[in-house]
Amino acid sequence: MIDTMSPNISILGIGTALPSYRIEQDEVLDKLEEALQDSPNAVRWARRIFKQCGVATRYTCEPNLIAQGSRSRYLPSEGLDDIPSTAERMGIYKRESVLLALQAAKDALLDSELDGSQITHLITVSCTGQFLPGIDAVLVKEMDLSPRVQRIPLTFQGCAAGLKAIQLARTLVKGQSTARILIVCVELCTLHFQPSSDREALFGASFFGDGASACVIGNAEKNSKGLFQLGDGHSVLMPDCSEEMIWEVGNYGFDLYLSTNIPKLLGCYLTSELEALLDGEEAPSLWAIHPGGRGIVDIVQQMCELSDDQVQYSRSILHDYGNLSSATIMFVLKAMREDLVSRKAESSSGVAIAFGPGLTAELLKFTYLPSAILQERIIDHVHS
User: Fold this and answer.
1) Which listed residue, of 64, 70, 135, 260, carries a Cα 20 to 30 Å from 95's Cα?
2) 191, part of any domain
3) 372 φ/ψ sector (left φ>0, alpha ψ -120 to 50, else beta)
4) What does UniProt list as catalytic (predicted)?
5) Which residues are designated catalytic?
6) Does 263 sit behind a cis peptide bond, omega within 30 degrees of 0 on the bond before it?
7) Full-prediction pTM beyond 0.85?
8) Is 293 among the domain residues?
């Protein structure tokens, strides 16, 4: 698992942030049933997917979402007069995304024991909104980053983009050993809930939530709390799957289509990609799976013959926060690290996986190193 050329490229710190408004799954379903009382078939479909998607609570930046069904502009209604336009939703995104991004980024810097002046690259990730100058420019100003910091926005790439940013950061550090890279993902998925009784709209409304995450990546010089050391990885665009996950800009926010075939397709193509990633190595004990939905975690657990303990982090994040798009993978890694540290776990190998439109899969090997181990690895590398 260890890259002998750059043995210490690691996630140095992780931060997460959530908006103020909490969504209880049962309450949302009650509001939908009220709004859909004249559409019994839609009510039956909503009950089924809301109860089976593995989500109990989520968070939103938009208080109108948790208003009573007849007063929520994001839930099904008779007319289109009061539905929030894309422009209105982007105005909310511009305001709320910055607050969450700043909180997550500050927490990640604090966790990494670095300050803003040491950051050489800033990668910002989002697919749920855009404005210019963007979040990257705001972060430079508000966090006292160097005005010469290399800014790299990854926009509109879906759920896989958080792990893609981590892979990109590792590549950058391999080429510049002194680089310290701050990644910030912020997604306000609930802004795009559609007031429709269509199955696709209800499906998307059943498990997406809002949140932000951030991490700092660089060569580790110390390890006081346990680190994830980054190994090899790759990205793959699966064949003949471009119509299975679609995310387009509409007049009333972004329109999402998710095929029910996605878990099945992942089952067809993912085995060979994991074999290529591991290249004959034993299957790892740690699995950071992006919980794009309950069915995705189910299929990865089934095909890789994983225990319930091995997928507990992904399932718990989905249960407590829903799918936060690109931000989710860092929530999973943070929960995993906290558990490993609390249990005083030994060094363990792992794989992180995330999926996005295309269908795209991002796969990355990593190693958890307890606090006492890093210096031994540095010494061994120097002597070798």
Assistant:
1) 70
2) no
3) alpha
4) 159 (acyl-thioester intermediate)
5) 159
6) no
7) yes
8) yes
Q: Which spans in 229-311 are helix H?
A: 262-278, 294-304
CA distance 373 to 223: 8
Asked whether residue 136 is assigned to any structural domain, the reply reads no
H/E stretch holding 210: strand 210-219
Instruction: Provide the residue type at 381 as one letter.
Output: H
SS3 79: coil
Tens of pLDDT, residues 327-364: 999 999 999 999 999 999 999 999 999 999 988 999 99
Tell me the β-bridge partners of 17. Answer: 212
* Cβ-based neighbour number of residue 52 at 10 Å: 13
CA distance 214 to 13: 8
Nearest CA to 157 among 365, 15, 16, 358? 358
CATH of the domain at 268: 3.40.47.10
Bridge partners, 164 (sequence order): none
CA distance between the termini of the chain: 16
Both tokens of 307, joined, read 């225990």
* Whether 18 contacts 59, CB under 8 Å: yes
Which domain, by its residues, includes 352? 227-383
Domain count, the chain: 1
Measured in whole angstroms, the distance separating CA 181 from the mean position of its chain's CA atoms is 18
Give me 192's structure tokens. 């795009």
Question: What does DSSP assign to residue 159?
Answer: G
Q: Considering the domain boundaries, does residue 30 fall inside one?
A: no
Q: Write out pLDDT tens, residues 81-112.
A: 788 999 999 999 999 999 999 999 999 999 99
Residues 6+ apart with CB under 8 A from 310: 285, 286, 287, 301
